[in-house]
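[Archive record]
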Amino acid sequence: MNTNIEQLTEAGNLVPSGTAFDWAGAERQIEAPIPVDYQKLIDAGGDGVWFDYIRLYAPDARYQDQNLLKAPGVFNELQAFWEDGDTEPPEDWVDDDRLVVWAGTGNGERLYWRQSPNVSAEQFPVYVADADGDRWERFDMSATDFLVGVLTGEVRSAFFSETFLRTDRVFRRYDA
């Protein structure tokens, strides 16, 4: 059976961009480990739009709004909203945890890894926040498990637009 990376590479016709990402530098800058499966997917050419809807973030300034290096700022904004009472964190939130944004949608939903002390990056659950940041969904799986699940129809988010999410349009590079 194919691994998630192989399944996504084949389904999306991925071709490595030839750009080497500095994953160690990215981890230092965002002060969080980045799951290896995600690194492999981006390195395989997966930095782009999945299903005409989910925009993966890569650690490079050229990605502007899809720049993984901006993750700490996104989390700081979330915390400010929580402190002001504008939105609420996930129900199972623990104060020592952090959220690291790894993807977003054109409708404003964001996908995060929940980083907890003493939990390896390969065990980070995926959280999806609605566009307002008021509601949360938790998926106990990796980012690549999540994407394969969306592709196969086994994973669904109540927040994703069925109108715009197109599994028949698997992948498009940002520069295409």
Q: What stands out?
A: The helical segments are 4-12, 23-30, 36-46, 71-84, 143-152. The chain has one domain: 4-165.
